[in-house]
Amino acid sequence: MSATVRDVLLLSSEYLASRGVPHARREAENLLAHVLGTGRIGVYLLFERELTDDERSTLRDMVRRRGRREPLAYILGCADFMGRRFRVTTDTLAPRPETELLAEIAVRKLPRDAPARFADVGTGCGALAAAILAERPAASALATDLSASALAVARENFLALGLAERVELVQCDLLPSNAADLDLIAANLPYVSEADYEKLEPEVKAEPRNALVAGLLGTELIEALIARSTSFLRPAGWLLLEFGYNQSERILGALHRSGFVDVFIEEDLAGMPRVAGGSLPQ
Fold first, then answer.
1. Helices (H), the chain
2. How far apart (Å, rounded) are the C-alpha atoms in residues 190 and 81?
3. For residue 2, what pLDDT band results from cuts at 50, 70 and 90?
4. What is the three-class DSSP state of 73?
5. Model confidence over 227-243: pLDDT tens digits?
6. Model pTM score
7. Whole-angstrom Cα distance, residue 184 to residue 236?
């Protein structure tokens, strides 16, 4: 029996909604776009096209996986961030749109044309470092992660984007002891508390737990980096941190206690405090 793009989009959306998948229509559009080799807008331009048997079979399998609350990025094998596509695997978190704010602030803080060196702590698939490097062609990066598997994915992404020669990848806890004179440190570290983890959607829980959960408070790793970062930044160097709900006061307090100045908080597009930062004194 034949089925058009319109037909399968409707059926897929209804199925995903029945399984409790958030934003079911958009998720169905993304899956269908992937099968058709187009973008979400392209799905509507092909509305009356009939799917081949192979396309229908592939889509059916993908929709079922999403209905089981497998993350969309793991099904597609990739995710977009700052206009670039990154390979992701079950060893990495999928980059989130809200983290683009962290990348944008980092780009603003680094010189446009002069050489600069920054660190992306907890790089995962490498999206944050890559986005910054792409906008600052004279910069170089130190990208760290505890996971060797995540670093392997990051290496693939840097190679695919032509950025590998400007990145040093290091497997370590936060920062290696020999890092020094960094112009900027940016970090999207785990910031979910043990209690909040239990309330997360199933697809989020399908991602690596150690890339999400930091401890009882959720701020443990961030506070550890704040305390240690003063040894790695040059004078006037910046520390930028993504953080979670209801953590502003703890992060601001830690920054002030460690001697950072020009401390700030920026909100994301949803109006939530999302990124904190400060610089070392001159």
1. 5-18, 24-36, 40-45, 53-67, 72-76, 100-109, 127-135, 148-160, 194-197, 202-205, 220-229, 248-257
2. 18
3. confident
4. helix
5. 999 999 999 999 999 99
6. 0.93
7. 9
